[in-house]
Design a protein that fits this description.
single chain; mainly beta; 2 helices; 17 strands; globular; transport; signal
Length: 308
């Protein structure tokens, strides 16, 4: 489904006009633009890219003591102007649900549990070095129901179910168990494991771990995936690290993908962020992909990100 700018503006104005007592409403967004030199195997070129820039509405409404409605309507906005006519605003996570002492259940268009559990381990998410460049599993699915249990100590269980949506369709599931806090603010260690079945054409198992050691934040992801139609399997591994120095954050990660038949792929990304304020940063990165089959790729960019 595509939305015009006028439709989105009307939705925001409507939300802002709701009585304050009706619900807690947040208008939020992120603008992320890079100027970069890109080489995808046929020579380098310069481009301006909008990297998953977005705007959205989210909030809660207390129905009774301990029971809340939760909702979100988020849209991707292509600030570089490169999208086809009518595609400059597209859907991201959009759902409504209930939250209480039983946990949380959400219905709509949402990230699967396998996508969610990677948390902040992928340090170059939405840029060319994003883990989705080599792996499957970064799915945002329509017709989905997502349940997350209440926490049992530091443990939590989650399930995404995707309905068939047609007589000839196939349903799918994404199941995960999580330990700790993704942001590492409430726990020193975060770990999770998930299993996808029939999800967007793949069966996937993903394991994630992250923690702090000295001043470093370290993370790792291991993944196996199988194409349901072809039976081709892949084993992959990714490690990442970041280190803050005053307003700077130095970052790097390495990702591998080994496919049946000896087709090996490797991605390496290094970069640095400089915080101008809590809401704003400038950054630079270099990404290189080494492919056994297919063209090697290289990306060098600088960018500006503003969150509100």
């Amino acid at each position: 489904m595509h939305f015009s700018t006028r439709t989105l503006a009307a939705a925001i104005v409507t939300a802002l006009s709701l009585p304050v007592t009706a619900a807690d409403i947040d208008i939020y967004g992120k603008a992320n633009l890079t100027v970069q030199s890109s080489d995808e195997g046929e020579g380098s070129f310069t481009e301006v890219k909008s990297n998953a820039s977005r705007i959205g509405l989210k909030g809660t409404h207390e129905l009774s003591d301990g029971l809340f409605v939760v909702y979100k309507a988020e849209f991707q906005v292509d600030l570089d102007g490169d999208s086809a006519k009518g595609d400059s605003i597209t859907d991201r996570n959009q759902y409504v649900g209930l939250k209480g002492n039983f946990g949380e259940i959400l219905i709509g268009h949402n990230d699967t549990l396998t996508k969610q559990i990677q948390g902040k381990v992928d340090l170059f998410s939405d840029l060319n070095g994003d883990i989705k460049s080599l792996w499957k599993g970064e799915n945002r699915m329509s017709d989905s129901i997502t349940y997350k249990s209440a926490k049992f100590g530091d443990f939590q269980f989650g399930l995404t179910y995707v309905a068939e949506d047609s007589v000839d369709g196939e349903d799918a599931t994404s199941i995960a168990v999580m330990y700790g806090d993704q942001a590492l603010k409430k726990s020193k260690l975060y770990a999770a494991i998930s299993v996808d079945s029939e999800m967007n054409g793949y069966d996937i198992t993903r394991a994630v771990v992250s923690g702090k050691l000295g001043g470093f934040t370290l993370g790792a992801i291991a993944q196996t995936q199988e194409n349901i139609d072809s039976g081709q399997e892949m084993d992959g591994f990714m490690v990442s690290a970041k280190y803050p120095i005053n307003n700077w954050t130095l970052k790097g990660q390495v990702q591998t993908a080994s496919f049946d038949g000896g087709d090996d792929k490797t991605g390496v990304t290094v970069g640095a962020d400089y915080a101008l304020a809590k809401s704003t940063k400038v950054f630079g990165f270099y990404t290189t992909f080494d492919m056994d089959t297919g063209a090697d790729e290289d990306y060098l960019g600088v960018g500006l990100e503003y969150k509100f």
